Amino acid sequence: METNKLLVQYRDALLDDVIPFWMKHSPDPQHDGYFTCLDRKGDVFDTDKFVWLQGRQVWMFATLYNKVARREEWLQMAESGARFLLRHGRDGGGDWYFSLTREGAPLVEAYNIFSDCFATMAFGQLYLATGKEEYAQVAVTTFLKILKRSSHPKGRFSKSVGGTRPLKGFSLPMILCNLSLEIEPLLDKELVEETISSCLYEVMELFYDQESGLILENVLADGSRSDSFEGRLLNPGHAIEAMWFIMDLSVRLKRPTLADQAVKIVRDTLEFGWDKEYGGIFYFLDRKGYPPQQLEWDQKLWWVHMETLIALIKGYSLTGDRHLQQWFDKVHDYTWSHFPDPENGEWFGYLNRRGEVLLPLKGGKWKGCFHVPRGLLQVWKTLEQMGNGM
Length: 390
Fold this sequence. Notes:
This protein is mostly helical and 390 residues long. It has helices at residues 3-25, 51-67, 72-88, 114-130, 133-149, 171-182, 189-206, 229-232, 236-253, 256-273, 302-319, 322-338, 371-387, and strands at residues 37-38, 44-46, 49-50, 99-100, 106-108, 167-169, 208-209, 214-215, 218-220, 233-234, 285-286, 300-301, 350-351, 357-359.
């Protein structure tokens, strides 16, 4: 691991390739907000706007402004998305829609809680950039609504029949690990501590399966296991992403044993989730090795590999575990040889199992200006800290 060479590679890819791609192709100068459905060259192929991707992009540009350089064009980019979201993003009850037309008319209702999560991140980070109280108020109000809905995130939109198999999902406690730190300066200290404590218990105990050493995507409401498609489901990318959130919490709480636990889970997840025939990390797996129900289970996705690189470099920086260094080199080599598009810029998102480009798009309904730039930034800054002796 050549720290200085890697630092330059991640920094330059962020500042000279990925961010310029989104600056050039995604702004909607007529209605504010961003186009995310971009083809290989960056041309817009659909103008619908997905609220969680709008929030993610606001957060990304506000974060660049706060943590990299106070470039006015980055702040303007963030505020364009914020204006669009404030005008059109919420329903009458204050919940954030899933998708809107280009002009901002609602298309899909607030059927889950994740638009709210990324709106919270967006406005919290933008408040830190601007000091505008309106942004702080939106972030805090939305966060409190998330906590109220946390026991039943989908509400009336849940498809399952109540009481038969009451499953609890990993996604929300995982996100709250990160979200509580993102807007900590805006929250009551006691609320932050309560939220962190609850998330740590759920992520590291409730969803952690000691027998396999893996994180489950769903458990029964009482924390017991369900021997079903949903109950056996593994999402290696989710588990590994959550572990770098836990590593950040270990630093915040001054509990290095948390980082040690997170590192073990990352290693166990990679051992289970790495495709030993073609390389790369599987998208979905079954804990018992049965065929997963997701037809896309064997695809190799951009965000899974990017989040893994963050977890590996953070874990190595905190623990010095040489196995993580070896894994970082392995995942780095796979990622950089498959996902970046040297011809048109930015990164492909979807590969088939053999590592061939499955969809040439650069953004869509699920891929936006988030995982690639956030990952490049996180790895760059972690390497920078390592070079400064942490």
